[in-house]
């Protein structure tokens, strides 16, 4: 069932069921009352990433406090997405974009990975979480992805579960078309790895190619920026192996 884009959506951190009362946080209350200028009896959609989406009605409202009562479930909670999205962090503005697009594209877990050519410090987990929530509210996603702390690439590979296939975007992979390589993969869980602006180092690429659970794919004849490559690769994986099939 597709999202209702005509109603405002709010992510909340409390259990949801018929008759449950929700007290929005200070920022949400300000938005509802002073930006949207909603009044008692108005309705919004609420979700918590666990109990599905609910239509909720504004009850008591003052200048600083509002309550919401869950009236009816509008969509059930879907199964968690198995897609693990691993990426080398980018500069702040483009990092925000990348996290938002990963949420929109259906990633179940978002894992920053520090590579040899990654520029800057590890990203803040709380900031990425806020971006993920905002993207979920805006695009109708019910399951907010898990946000992991950044890890070094070697540590990620050392602890890898070999039952999960790792697809990595390799600008030196032969050919231009990724579809044949993706379509040849079995039904095992999949992860996607996208490198930094400077690409993977030779040593990183050699290690990745030597691992039995890794599949390298090209992304066409043009050099793509890292955020563009990520969105393109997520679309390819979802179309061939994920929930776009």
From TrEMBL:
Segments forming domain Ribosomal RNA small subunit methyltransferase E PUA-like: 26-69
Matching entries from InterPro entries are given as: Alpha/beta_knot_MTases, PUA-like_sf, RsmE, RsmE_MTase_dom, RsmE_PUA-like, tRNA_m1G_MTases_N
UniProt-annotated location(s)? Cytoplasm
Its GO biological process annotations read:
methylation
Going by the UniProt record, its keywords in alphabetical order are: Cytoplasm, Methyltransferase, rRNA processing, S-adenosyl-L-methionine, Transferase
Q: Under the GO molecular function aspect, what terms does this record hold? A: methyltransferase activity
Question: In the UniProt record, does the keyword Transferase occur?
Answer: yes
Q: Which reaction does it catalyse?
A: uridine(1498) in 16S rRNA + S-adenosyl-L-methionine = N(3)-methyluridine(1498) in 16S rRNA + S-adenosyl-L-homocysteine + H(+)
Indicate the segments forming the Ribosomal RNA small subunit methyltransferase E methyltransferase domain, all copies. Answer: 79-238
> Which Pfam families does the entry link to?
Methyltrans_RNA (PF04452), PUA_4 (PF20260)
Q: What is its main location?
A: cytoplasm
List its EC numbers. 2.1.1.193
> Which family does the record claim for this protein?
Belongs to the RNA methyltransferase RsmE family.
Q: What does this protein do?
A: Specifically methylates the N3 position of the uracil ring of uridine 1498 (m3U1498) in 16S rRNA. Acts on the fully assembled 30S ribosomal subunit.
Q: Which NCBIfam families match?
A: PRK11713.3-5, RsmE family RNA methyltransferase
Name of the protein: Ribosomal RNA small subunit methyltransferase E
């Amino acid at each position: 069932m597709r999202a209702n884009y005509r109603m405002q959506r709010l992510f909340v951190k409390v259990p949801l069921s018929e008759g449950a009362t929700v007290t929005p946080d200070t920022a949400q209350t300000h938005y509802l009352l002073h930006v949207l200028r909603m009044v008692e009896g108005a309705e919004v959609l609420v979700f918590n990433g666990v109990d599905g989406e609910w239509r909720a009605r504004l009850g008591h409202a003052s200048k600083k406090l509002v309550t919401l009562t869950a009236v009816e479930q509008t969509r059930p909670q879907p199964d968690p997405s198995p897609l693990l999205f691993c990426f080398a962090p980018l500069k702040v503005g483009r990092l925000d974009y990348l996290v938002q697009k990963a949420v929109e594209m259906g990633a179940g877990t978002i894992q920053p990975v520090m590579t040899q050519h990654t520029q800057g410090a590890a990203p803040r987990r709380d900031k990425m979480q806020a971006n993920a929530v905002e993207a979920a509210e805006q695009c109708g996603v019910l399951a907010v992805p898990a946000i992991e702390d950044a890890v070094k690439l070697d540590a990620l590979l050392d602890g890898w579960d070999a039952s999960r296939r790792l697809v990595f975007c390799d600008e030196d992979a032969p050919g231009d078309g990724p579809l044949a390589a993706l379509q040849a993969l079995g039904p095992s869980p999949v992860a996607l790895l996208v490198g930094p602006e400077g690409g993977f180092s030779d040593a990183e690429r050699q290690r990745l190619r030597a691992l039995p659970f890794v599949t390298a794919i090209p992304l066409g004849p043009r050099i793509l920026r890292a955020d563009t490559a990520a969105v393109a690769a997520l679309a390819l994986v979802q179309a061939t192996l994920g929930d776009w099939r």
